[in-house]
Design goal:
It is built from 13 helices and five strands. With 254 residues, the chain is of the alpha/beta class. The protein has three domains: 2-130, Response regulator (Rossmann fold, 3-Layer(aba) Sandwich), CATH 3.40.50; 136-187, no CATH class; 205-253, Arc Repressor Mutant, subunit A (Orthogonal Bundle), CATH 1.10.10.
Length: 254
């Protein structure tokens, strides 16, 4: 049985999330609920839940602070999921930077939450199978060699689920260690590197004469949501994918 901590300043949202887990998602148990980041961290340090589902926008401290604090815990392997409204996609992007695996939109839909938890189950099952092996950390590969291997893997599997937890499970390392080696050898966080890689691949595809549709490009570079892909692209490049394609087309024609 995997354990879940729910964090939201709205009681009705907590009740909805708890009911969905209890009625539709077997194998997961809600072991705590919190209305604030402070209380959530108290429960987290005591219970060490496998999954934390947290609202992003809350009074006093945001869910981003909670995710960041959890990801900085030594030997942490918790799956963090951000919960956000449609107007808060910039917060969702930031939550990925801090280490969230995925997000849910409010109002939370049972079908979407069930689908997400099935993917979480697969990640957690893989973690158990690995048995928390840390052979790479023990010196069989240097940090530089490990970063190179991860970068090569990402370039070859860009369309797949490459969340922090998935990569840590695949390479048998902890999240703090992944963060450390990327900061040391790449000068950025893992998620910043992954986002940059995805955007550069997308730009390359958009420059092609007969490039795929925007939605197809989004999926190819690892974004399940075209709208979110466009938001991230504009944030990084300064224009939407469509505007970028039109500008590149004008350059080529002239």
């Amino acid at each position: 049985m995997y354990t879940v901590l729910l964090v939201d300043d709205e009681p009705v949202v907590l009740n909805t999330e708890r009911r969905i887990i209890e009625r539709k998602i077997p194998g997961f148990e809600v072991i705590g609920e919190a209305f604030s980041v402070k209380r959530a961290l108290e429960i987290y340090d005591r219970q060490k839940p496998d999954v934390v589902l947290t609202d992003i926008k809350m009074p006093v401290q945001s869910g981003l602070v909670l995710i960041q604090n959890i990801m900085e815990r030594e030997n942490n392997s918790t799956v963090c999921i951000s919960v956000s409204g449609y107007t808060d996609f910039n917060y969702v992007h930031d939550s990925f930077t801090y280490g969230a695996m995925d997000y849910l939109l409010k109002p939370v839909e049972p079908a979407k939450m069930t689908e997400l938890f099935e993917r979480i189950r697969q990640v957690l099952d893989n973690r158990v199978e690995l048995g928390a092996v840390r052979v790479l950390e023990d010196g069989y590969l240097t940090g530089r060699e490990l970063v190179d291997k991860i970068c090569i893997f990402l370039k070859d599997h860009l369309a797949e689920d490459n969340s922090i937890l998935v990569i840590c499970n695949k390479f048998g390392i902890s999240q703090p260690y992944l963060s450390k080696i990327f900061k040391t050898f790449m000068g950025c966080t893992y998620n910043e590197y992954l986002t940059e890689l995805r955007i550069e691949r997308a730009k390359s595809m958009l420059r092609e004469k007969k490039s795929p549709l925007i939605g197809e490009i989004a999926v190819t570079v690892g974004f399940a949501d075209q709208f979110y892909f466009s938001k991230v692209f504009k944030n990084k490049v300064g224009c939407t994918p469509r505007e970028y394609k039109q500008a590149e087309g004008s350059k080529n024609s002239s």
